[in-house]
Amino acid sequence: MGRAFVYVILGGGVAAGYAALEFTKRGVRRGELCIISEEPLAPYERPALSKGFLLPEAPARIPSFHTCVGINEERLTPKWYKEHGIELVLGTRVKSADVRRKTLLTAAGETISYKILIIATGARSLKLEEFGVKGSDAENVCYLRDLADANTLVDLMQSCSGGNAVVIGGGYIGMECAASLVINKLNVTMVFPEAHCMARLFTPKIATYYEEYYKSKGVKFIKGTVLSSFDFDSNGKVTAVNLKDGSQLPADMVVVGIGIRPNTSLFEGQLTLEKGGIKVNGRLQSSNSSVYAVGDVAAFPVKLFGETRRLEHVDSARKSARHAVAAIMEPNKMDEFDYLPFFYSRVFTFSWQFFGDNVGEVVHYGDFSGSTFGAYWVSKGHLVGSFLEGGTKEEYEAIAKATRMKPAIEDLAELERQGLVFALSVSKKPAPSPPPPSDSRGSTLVVEKPIYAWHATAGVVLAASIAAFAYWYGRRRRRW
Ligand SMILES: Cc1cc2nc3c(=O)[nH]c(=O)nc-3n(C[C@H](O)[C@H](O)[C@H](O)COP(=O)(O)OP(=O)(O)OC[C@H]3O[C@@H](n4cnc5c(N)ncnc54)[C@H](O)[C@@H]3O)c2cc1C
């Protein structure tokens, strides 16, 4: 038994939804495209699961966050797929793939063949058992990767309200869940081995800002140690968390966010892998020319930094998916994918964005006792990364553009003094054309000290008008 399609997307997450939209924009015909997903619903905006979905009042629920609502595009409901003649094969796990024969075998025993395959299998949560700790299947221990996990988490939060929650892991899942647990009236303790939260991105100074706020909301931090075991009651429910440092925490529920692993196993031995993902070129094409990979599972060349990276962020999933489809449908028109890494998070009333790379020397700027501050990363004399908390749309756009331009930085103290004004003024310069070469240390724009004074004045005027606009416009908060 089998079916055949011209294009098959394997995986039904963020990247699949954005790829589907792009296929329709580029003229895919009815019956040509199929999406196979082990999840029982059409693609949705996964980041909503740790944000709007966990709110105690008016929580976000499907269908409100189907893709591609995350970029204010059309919301792709099951009806939309039907209207466009796209086959959704849901609740169906693919258990093996044969890239030589161009076939996929589902767990139900159906063979689905393709001319072009897009792998969009994303990643799975790392389990405690992979670190030698038992208890993942206890009914009050949860992870957060898909809608089923999010439903479990909501049920647990409701049944444990007023009780003790332990969050294992200090990354973005841990931080976003801890905030939601507090909002849902649980007593929260976070446990992680690093010296501060969000250790892969935050500097100690940035981390301290958020940790202090969390502490003011009652969150306790236990750092520099890890979970060693659970205590269970006679029903197999976790009652306490034992840490390697010998301490014990009472627990009514546990949330685990200790990282993810890309879902590559179907293709190991068939496609070239790198950095834990499926290696692709600037067209998102794998070592087999009929197979593309996008989203969390893809390791692609980041031209700006001259190296292959695998990113675990929603913006990269959206853009890599759209680029792959464009490269498939209009191969002669497409340039290589030229992506500026972008990551964001929203917790409590905070909202931050990060662009580029967090390597080299760090310069902090802004008011760390207030609500708008940030940091720049400078490597080999050039700006390579920018972080901003509490910015306006225009300010985020400015730091993104400035980061992409990689301006030369000669004086770190001056950059610190300029702060956000630096990005606002640099970003007013015309974008370089063509973009800087991938291995470029050199920048297209050298901002030296004498120019700063003028930029500073212009920047202050600009910042003031932006602030006035922002005040008038109010801060619109999105839930995914
Ligand atoms: C709770 C949460 C919050 C997040 N918040 C943010 C955020 O604030 N900012 C940010 O930048 N990023 C965030 N992310 C990361 C972002 O959601 C991911 O980068 C993005 O979802 C990756 O998209 P993807 O399509 O590659 O993978 P996914 O969205 O994970 O989709 C993969 C799909 O493939 C399916 N699949 C896998 N294997 C098979 C198989 N063998 N057969 C059939 N189907 C299969 C999976 O079930 C899933 O549906 C968050 C992630 C989570 C889990």
From TrEMBL:
Keywords on record: FAD, Flavoprotein, Membrane, NAD, Oxidoreductase, Redox-active center, Transmembrane, Transmembrane helix
Residues that span the membrane, as ranges: 451-474
Lineage, broadest ranks: Eukaryota, Viridiplantae, Streptophyta, Embryophyta, Tracheophyta
Required cofactor names: FAD
SUPFAM superfamilies: FAD/NAD(P)-binding domain, FAD/NAD-linked reductases, dimerisation (C-terminal) domain
Protein's name according to its UniProt entry: monodehydroascorbate reductase (NADH)
The enzyme's E.C. designation: 1.6.5.4
Main EC class the enzyme belongs to: oxidoreductase
Domain FAD/NAD(P)-binding: 7-321
Family listed: Belongs to the FAD-dependent oxidoreductase family.
Stored Pfam families: MDHAR3-like_C, Pyr_redox_2
All residue ranges annotated as the Monodehydroascorbate reductase 3-like C-terminal domain in the record: 340-423
InterPro entries recorded: FAD-oxidoreductase/Apoptosis, FAD/NAD-bd_sf, FAD/NAD-binding_dom, FAD/NAD-linked_Rdtase_dimer_sf, MDHAR3-like_C
UniProt keyword annotation of Nucleotide-binding present: no
